Amino acid sequence: MCECKCGTNDYVTTAKELLSGKRSCGCIRKKKGFNDYRIDGDTTIIYFRDKMDEIIMEGYIDTDDLQMLIDLDYHWCLMWNVHSQNWYARTTEYYLDENGNRKTRLHSLHREIMQVFEKDLVVDHREHKNTGTLNNRKSNLRIATDGQNSGNRKSKNSNNKSGYRNVLLDKKSEKYIIMLCINYKRFRVGKYYDDVHEAGRDAEMYRKEYYKEFAGKS
Q1: Number of domains making up the chain
Q2: What is the pLDDT of residue 147?
Q3: How would you classify the pairing of strands 43-49 and 55-62?
Q4: Residues 144-158: tens digit of each pLDDT
Q5: Could you tell me if 160 and 134 lie in one domain?
């Protein structure tokens, strides 16, 4: 155990940190506190800065969530999600487990706001375009199961050959079919199609029927 400059003495320092003279429990990161912000009525704008302390992006929260986030005392950073191709506001918490080992825990701003931490639930952003994932006002957030969220795709798969989401060519019949995924299981809906454009139109209709507000885009 080592003592930090801030007075904390219940953290573990690695051999590399000892050799380098580092004596920090993580308080340097924590001292940043909550991001700079500006209140604009019911909406509060929070600012994200780069390593040079220059403002590079803005995010939005409901003003009535501001005090709760200030009390958390987290400093929110930008993290790029390769899968969704979007920016998200996240932070890393450092803590000690029951054995005294130093661990990290990732927090997402949208989950903190909605107070949803169950792994089988997803907090989805209704709007993704133009950094909409940094808009963490509750009107832009909704809670979904992982299955519902998988239906809310922005577009077809990159390996799609028909040009329409959920439409593929059945090699046996040489006709187009519509395949949907419900509760992690794939099944065919509709008829066999000669016209791929008709199949595409029907696929959108079936997505709205089965996925409701999570139908996503074609």
Answers
A1: 3
A2: 57
A3: antiparallel
A4: 876 555 545 555 555
A5: no
